[in-house]
Amino acid sequence: MREFGENSTEPMKAVTERKEAEERIRSQSRELALLHRVRSAVVPELEVPGVLSRVVEAIAETYGYTRLSAYLLEGEELVLQHQVGYHEVIGRTSLTEGVFGRAVSTGGPVLVGDVNTDPGSLGAMEDVTSEICVPLFDGGETVGFLSAQSMGGVKLTHNDLRVLVAVCELVGVAVSRARLYARLRFSEGRYRALTQNSSDLVTLMEATGIVRYQSPAIERMLGYFSEELIGKNAFDYVHPDDLQRIQMAFAEVVKDPGRVPLAEYRFRHKDGTWRWLESVGTNLIEEPGVGAYVVNSRDITRRKEAEERLTEAEERYRTLVEQIPAVTYIDPVDAPDTSLYTSPQIERMLGYTPEEWQTQRLWPECLHPGDRERILAADARFEAGGEESFSEEYRLLARDGSVVWVREEAVLLKDEDGEPLYWQGVFYDLTERKALEERLEHRALHDYLTDLPNRQLFVDRLRQALDRTRRRTDRKVAVLFTDLDEFKIINDSLGHEAGDLLLTLVAQRLERCLRPEDSLARFGGDEFVVLIEDVEGPEVAVRVAGRIIEELARPFHLEDRELFASSSIGISLGDARTKTPEDLLRDADTAMYRAKEEGGTYRVFDPDMYERARGRLELEGDLRRTLEAPQEQLPVFYQPMVSIPNGAIVGMEALLRWAHPERGLLAPSGFISEAERTGLIVPMGRWVLNEACRRAKEWQERHPRDVPLAIAVNLSARQLRYPELVGEVEDALGQAALDPGSLTLEITESVLVEEGESSAVTLRRLKELGVRLAIDDFGVGYSSLSYLGYLPVDQLKLDRVLVGNLATDHKNLAIVRAVVDLGHVLGIEVVAEGVETHEEFEELRKLGCDVGQGSYWWGPRLPGEAEKLLASNLDPLPDRRPG
Predict the structure, then answer these.
(1) Which of 125, 285, 545, 737 has the fewest CB atoms inside 10 Å of its own CB, making it the most exposed?
(2) pLDDT at residue 4, as a whole number
């Protein structure tokens, strides 16, 4: 290799050969000197940049190349480490450009003899003639490049390339060593930092267990100083119950360096307590710089305590779960038809073992066909969303085929990151509750006595039946409303048990009168209602009513008695366009009352009935408002009762009138029946009783007599049944300070017979107060004289029907004579009502009748006018009074 600028012109061949040989010798000497210098320069250097700097300087000093530079590879760029001969510093160069790019693509050294003519060069470079680029390798990895450039027309040769390749081989070894040293130094520093600052405890141990090193974490973890346990055997500090297991694990590491066992055990703290450690052992006995068994430990005491608490909680939870009367389960998210856990109660509920339920996908198969579609759809929505809890009631089929009602509650449990973990749920057995609900619902919709539908269920069926008439405009529905005419008498005389039994027999007979599609209901008491659908007119309903009347006309055999229970039936018809359920029931009820008023059988509703019914409702409303201040519109009139033998006024009968603001003064016949029907007769009678007693006491004090003036007050059937009647009579007497013997309570004979024994008890209690009792309208209609033998009757009042025409009607005369004689024999006073003529008066006087009352003397009068009679000296015989 020649030096730059040298020429040889000696023409002689010998001289030429000699010169060439000398040149080869000098070149080889420089090469050897360069390699020696490079080797000497890089041997002490352990840093890569230092290696490259020394190499570049050595080559420049030895060979005198114009330009030399060394680069290290960083990603896709070359970073300058050292250069010689350049006027400017190019710190970074692209890896893909120029001679570097060619070296990368070929993977070897590159020589460009003339950069100006070479097609692969980037173009002419200022005063640069040739260029060499040689890769630097660390093993098989390219880590950098060494570059040389010549200038001034001097060309680099293949010999130059060979020398630089040889140099780079030495440099590659030095770079590899420096890089290894850097990695070792980094690893050592990192290891030291890890051990010194790690929260875990790092221990180096010999095969015998002797501690060679403890990281500073031991002070925080176990209370010892780092040097305190060095030289001591670590197994001496292990809990006796864990020692054998830990020694065996450590022996495995010693025997097999590839094993890295994990162990949990207790280690004695410096304060004497035990701490749980989790340790991982690694056999690094053969590793340079380590030469020990490395044990990494962490304190898991809190975790172990938490696990212990969790175990206890799980045990309590499992005990609780397996004791509660419900099935709990945990299902996987990816296969919810299977189960991770199912509590043992599943076998008691459905007959399947927990194992069968968990593995055989039984849940979908056991869904009741009537609930399957609904529940599978709800389950799909739940699995798709998972945000809302699953809560459904449905039926499952048990192993034996029985139906089990359940309520399922389920939630999707998620981890801290919101990822689904599993489904958790519970089945509650609702079978008994559902059965109870069905019974309660049935009871709520059915009559407790006959098990027939009640009003609520009947009205619902009636509404549905009316809705169906919207589709068939030529069809109607019919409602039959019926009650028993004499049921109250039977119920009161024979007792409620007999009455209930009769109602059940009536219900059975009514059902026999109907078609299967007809509906029968009991509204309460003795009221039964029938629904007949799909009728064109009243004919079908009338035929059914006829069958009912005929069926109920037959005797009932009850407790060895033969009873009869006739009925009154009201019929209404309509469709959805003209009637509501309430309209039809009201119309049928109105028609039924009309039938009852007319003596039984049945009646079909017509609008006139409604008008009459509306009139009754209006009358009832007026009565209720009137009773709020009875003294304003309910005046009490008084009619004198006269002694027939001597003509003296011996008493007054209190007679109620209603001064209606629109209808005028109404007699009792215009409102008493409505008051009786609605129960308003009770407060009305109370008003009359109090007013009469007060008035009688005033008259007795103002017009004293040898025999105090008596006052008579009528009692209705409803009043007689009123439980507080006796107490109210006693209160009226006490408030007025009236002697009980001055008060006569009148009861019609028909009421006495209808009420039977129940009225007898009340009458006896009234008699015990000291009041007098009178039988009003005696001799009219059905009569049984037997009650005169056991009831405390003081007075019999003959009706106008018997008193009228006594002078000409011999039969009435005979009856009155018999009654007067009977009364006298029994010690009962006889009063004749409705006396209008002198002839009637004379006949009664001849027969020995005690007291008379009627227009022959005076009609009913207001209190002021009645008192004037008491104060006057008028002749009691009208035909002898002055004109």
Answers:
(1) 737
(2) 36
Whether 224 contacts 244, CB under 8 Å: no
Q: How far is CA 362 from CA 131, 397, 452, 503, 781, in A?
A: 83, 10, 41, 51, 79
From the options 3.30.160.100, 3.30.530.20, 3.30.450.40, 2.40.160.60, give the CATH code of 13-186.
3.30.450.40
CATH 3.30.450.40 in the chain is located at 13-186
* Contact yes or no for 27/159 (Cβ under 8 A): yes
First-to-last C-alpha distance (Å) of the chain: 188
Most confident among 611-615, 662-666, 670-674, 695-699 (mean pLDDT): 695-699
Q: What is the DSSP letter of 579?
A: -
Cβ neighbour number for residue 530 with a 10 Å cutoff: 25
Decide which of 3.20.20.450, 3.30.360.10, 3.40.50.1360, 3.30.540.10 is the CATH code for 623-872: 3.20.20.450
324-435 architecture in CATH? 2-Layer Sandwich (3.30)
Q: Tokens at residue 824, please?
A: 């006298």
pLDDT in tens, 99-134: 888 888 888 898 888 888 877 665 556 678 888 899
358 Cα distance to chain centroid: 28
Q: In angstroms, rounded to a whole number, what is the distance separating the alpha carbons of residues 638 and 640? A: 7
Higher-confidence position of 169 and 429: 429
For the chain, residues classed under CATH 3.20.20.450 are 623-872
Residue 529 has pLDDT above 90, yes or no: yes
pLDDT at 9 (0 to 100): 47
Contact status, residue 829 vs residue 794, Cβ threshold 8 Å: yes
> pTM here?
0.44
The string of pLDDT tens digits covering residues 740-794 is: 999 999 998 777 766 566 678 888 999 999 999 999 888 765 555 766 767 788 9
Q: What is the pLDDT of residue 1?
A: 39
Closest CA to 584 of 452, 461, 448: 461
**Displacement of CA 239 from its chain's centroid (Å):** 55
- Superfamily (CATH) of domain 446-605: Reverse transcriptase/Diguanylate cyclase domain (3.30.70.270)
User: What CATH code is assigned to 198-305?
Assistant: 3.30.450.20
Report the share of the chain in percent with pLDDT over 70.
88
351: left (phi over 0), alpha (psi -120 to 50) or beta: left
| pLDDT value, residue 609 | 67
pLDDT confidence of 563, banded at 50, 70, 90? confident
Provide long-range contacts, Cβ within 8 A and 24+ apart, for 427-434: 427/326, 427/327, 427/328, 427/329, 427/346, 427/349, 428/325, 428/326, 429/325, 429/326, 429/349, 429/404, 429/405, 430/393, 430/405, 430/406, 431/403, 431/404, 431/405, 433/405, 434/405
Amino acid, single-letter form, for residue 723: P
Which residues make beta-bridge pairs with 205? 211, 293
Show the tokens assigned to 519. 């509906």
Pair of tokens at residue 217: 């974490």
Residue in the structure block whose two tokens are 């002694």: 643
Closest CA to 739 of 690, 693, 691: 693
- The span from the CA of 656 to the CA of 746, in Å, is 14
Identify whether the C-beta of residue 293 lies closer than 8 Å to the C-beta of residue 253.
yes
Averaged over 499-517, what is the pLDDT? 92
What pLDDT sits at residue 7?
46
